[in-house]
Amino acid sequence: MSQPTPDQIRARLAALQADDLPVHGGRTLAYVYDAGLADVDALARDAVAAFAGSNGLDPTAFPSLLTMENDLVAFARELVDGPDSMVGTITSGGTESCLLAVLGARDARPEIDSPSIVVADTVHAAFHKAGHYFGVRVIVVPTGPDHRADPEAMAAAIDDTTVLVVASAPSYAHGVVDPVPAIAAAAAARGVRCHVDACIGGWILPYGARLGRPVAPWTFAVDGVTSISTDLHKYAYAPKGASLLLHRDPALRRPQYFAHAGWPGYTMLNSTLQSTRSGGPVAGAWATVRAIGHDGYLDLTRRALDATDAVAAGIEAIDGLALVALPESTLVAAVADGPLDVFTVCDEMAERDWFVQPQLSYEGQPPSLHVAISAATDAAAFVAALGEAVAAARAAGPVVVDPGVVDLLRSVDPATLGDDEFDMLLAAGGLADGEGDLGLPDRMASVNALLDVAPPALREAVLVAFLDRLARPPAEPFATGT
């Protein structure tokens, strides 16, 4: 195979990207966040490219990255009501920020043999991941009917093994802000750290408050809040790969650092889970925030929240859909009633070039469709498309899972899921052709309906097995295309 030219490689990259969801235009309502500012996006890409080879491992070797990181933390201080003592770290994303919050809390209490954290059942899965990775027990407290954390129940769950209590601002699934003051007070009364997961709300809620919208207290202005996570690559609209983990003071941050001198190489010193980390995301975030500034973010927030209001009102006006909760930031979740099937609605929205995220049922709560509204989202166009999608879904009828498949799902032990059982499940879900090759169908409603009737543990096992099958190398590299 001859070596391709740079132009051929660029063409192949463009061809590969053609199958991806669009990252601009405001129609992909999960995974990406679009400000609709083409000039800022271009500037950020230039910054990422210019610093892609820089390495955040050693701030003395690349002091530019340290300067930009400290600038971003200082900019965020005003948003989160941070004291002068507040410090912060740039991470690769919200999950890493949450992981480090748990790790730092655990390592600050080495005398506890079996540490635990207390969370609501709506807490982001990143905290369960942290528990899995770091050997920390996750004590889950049910939320109330308003989908907010129950502060009295969380207080009762705190014991001598608790190293961290977590609140959300807002929770991802339902878009509501937990009662942070009561939760933080309960944690402080027991001498326990309290982390606020504001990965979604950290760059929206402060500007919403400046616009005169009601915002429940969640920042460092709340006594007892010890750390906050907020993502730059969400509503700061920076390129992917940048989040902030903020601590009230340096002593709270110090346990997250890792140093090791007990080997013949250089003394390793890390502020995050990564060692080598590209300077590209740091520079991209710095350029974005510097270009937009407070006035720009105020305008972007106004546009995003106005669009959210319009989407929520549009959903309430559509027969067959209902809001899960009134949105308190930019996240909107809706459920269907009667014969309407939200999974089919999601498929119909995809047919109209809108990506909305399906959420499966949980503990008696029905499945829902979920959207994260950006400043670039055209709310009127979205609501019009949703009305059409609901009508089409109602005409098509709900997806029905074969009772035999339901029985099969109930008979499978997730802990011992083997290849034969997995192949049967793939065939039942239409995810494999006659030769056993994997592939996603054009419409996902039948797959989501199948997953929805499966117990959560089996969903996890099936999706892990599916990802494992997908991530297999081809017989020859670069065999398809140029």
From TrEMBL:
SUPFAM superfamilies on file: PLP-dependent transferases
Keyword annotations from UniProtKB, A to Z: Lyase, Pyridoxal phosphate
Co-factor(s): pyridoxal 5'-phosphate
Pfam families in alphabetical order: Pyridoxal_deC
Residue(s) carrying N6-(pyridoxal phosphate)lysine: K234
Record-level Gene Ontology MF annotations: aromatic-L-amino-acid decarboxylase activity; pyridoxal phosphate binding
GO terms (BP aspect): carboxylic acid metabolic process
Record-stated family: Belongs to the group II decarboxylase family. Sphingosine-1-phosphate lyase subfamily.
Name of the featured protein: Pyridoxal-dependent decarboxylase
Organism (species): Nocardioides simplex (Arthrobacter simplex)
